[in-house]
Amino acid sequence: MSGKGNIYDNAFVESFFKTLKQEEVYLWEYETFFDVVERIPYFIEDLYDRKRLHSSLGYRFPEEFERLLAKNSSRECMMC
Prior knowledge:
Layout: H1 11-23, H2 33-48, H3 62-78
């Protein structure tokens, strides 16, 4: 295992692929490659990015986190 801050550490990618497998791939019985091409982007763009809570974001949805981040950064710019 690599140490903290190691640029060759891919823990985030490994975590994402674990989630992808557990919450999408293992639950569906794909019959064709077209099924995979259709479902995987749906999972990533609609479920993972919009509806799934992320612990690294304080158990918020990514869109909600980005909205709060934009709101806070615009508020800070007003004080500049």
